[in-house]
């Protein structure tokens, strides 16, 4: 089976060109009675009091705050690489307390900080919730997750991550799936394109490419990421027992085995009958007489022989020949693995 070449940018990333996670704590207001219960969420009550004091409303007794239209939330976002000050980014808003829905709410100004504690963006705006919750006296209907919302372009970048692309002397290509063969192929493709030994394999997941002086780094990276290479991977069979899904890689090989799949079906049918006394009898009672029919059917077992070193197509054809489904195939693959004839990793999730 022929493998398709793929672009380097589709199987690898460049070190330094990465997203950064941001997080912040804020308040969503304007909810229609679906906010946090102040008695159960003291952090929401204190946040509301602190916000009002910053806005000039002082001397507030926090114990008297019983509003139900406010919810404490965690706000998360990803800061894209090379984001400039003033650029908008999307944010996700998640309830922190016992709010039942964020629908119709508005997020107040929320600073978003990085892992270093510095604020890189500020979020605010009306939240958009895809789920809903309807509650009545005797029933409750929830569709989706109404306590998680998004704000498209809801944050503005206030601080840039320092990264001098034009000062780099080399770039490192990081494979998403480390593999010695794939790394070697990437090195060879890059060196062939550049006409010299610029690339070097550092480990199964990293290839370092030197940058010549007075070279535009952005254009240089653009050339590399659009080169095509044929990635390699280990033979693997992935099985999801919960859904019955089976994914078999093209490199999977099977040794010579004989497979049989049969079954025994037992059907039990009850046909009870009623025995009643004569119309003028004394002391007679009605009796239920059980009548059970047992039907045992044994499915003929069929053998199929897989010759040595068969391919993925041969394996599928062989399993189809004995008429097995996904559940039975999982058991057969496990048995083949136990017998030592499956030349691949069997991963069950």
From TrEMBL:
InterPro entries the UniProt entry points to: Flag_FlgI (IPR001782)
Keywords: Bacterial flagellum, Cell projection, Cilium, Flagellum, Periplasm, Signal
Family affiliation: Belongs to the FlgI family.
Record's subunit section: The basal body constitutes a major portion of the flagellar organelle and consists of four rings (L,P,S, and M) mounted on a central rod.
Function statement: Assembles around the rod to form the L-ring and probably protects the motor/basal body from shearing forces during rotation.
HAMAP family in the record: FlgI
Annotated protein name in UniProt: Flagellar P-ring protein
């Amino acid at each position: 089976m022929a493998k398709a070449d793929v672009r380097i940018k589709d199987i690898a990333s460049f070190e330094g060109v990465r997203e950064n996670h941001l997080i912040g704590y804020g308040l969503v207001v304007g909810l229609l009675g679906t906010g946090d219960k102040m008695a159960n969420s003291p952090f929401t009550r204190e946040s509301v009091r602190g916000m009002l004091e910053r806005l000039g409303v002082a001397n507030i007794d926090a114990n008297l705050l019983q509003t139900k239209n406010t919810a404490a939330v965690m706000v998360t976002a990803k800061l894209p690489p090379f984001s400039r000050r003033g650029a908008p980014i999307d944010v996700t808003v998640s309830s922190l307390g016992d709010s039942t829905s964020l629908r119709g709410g508005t997020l107040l100004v929320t600073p978003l900080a990085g892992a270093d504690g510095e604020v890189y963006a500020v979020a605010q705006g009306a939240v958009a919730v895809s789920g809903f919750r309807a509650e009545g006296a005797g029933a409750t209907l929830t569709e989706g997750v109404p306590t998680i919302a998004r704000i498209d372009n809801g944050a503005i970048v206030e601080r840039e991550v320092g990264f001098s692309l034009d000062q780099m002397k080399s770039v490192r290509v990081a494979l998403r799936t480390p593999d010695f063969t794939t790394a070697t192929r990437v090195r060879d493709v890059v060196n062939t394109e550049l006409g010299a030994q610029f690339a070097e394999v550092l480990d199964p997941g990293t290839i370092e490419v030197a940058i010549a002086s007075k070279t535009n780094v952005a254009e240089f990276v653009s050339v590399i990421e659009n080169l095509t290479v044929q990635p390699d991977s280990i033979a693997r069979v992935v099985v999801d027992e919960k859904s019955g899904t089976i994914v078999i890689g093209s490199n999977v090989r099977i040794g010579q085995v004989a497979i049989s799949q049969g079954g025994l079906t037992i059907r039990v049918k009850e046909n009870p009958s009623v025995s009643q006394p004569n119309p003028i009898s004394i002391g007679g009672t009605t009796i239920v007489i059980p009548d059970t029919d047992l039907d045992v059917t044994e499915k003929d077992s069929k053998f199929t022989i897989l010759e040595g070193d068969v391919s993925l197509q041969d394996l599928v054809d062989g399993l189809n020949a004995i008429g097995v489904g996904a559940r039975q195939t999982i058991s057969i693959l496990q048995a083949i693995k136990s017998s030592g004839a499956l030349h691949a990793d069997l991963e069950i999730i």
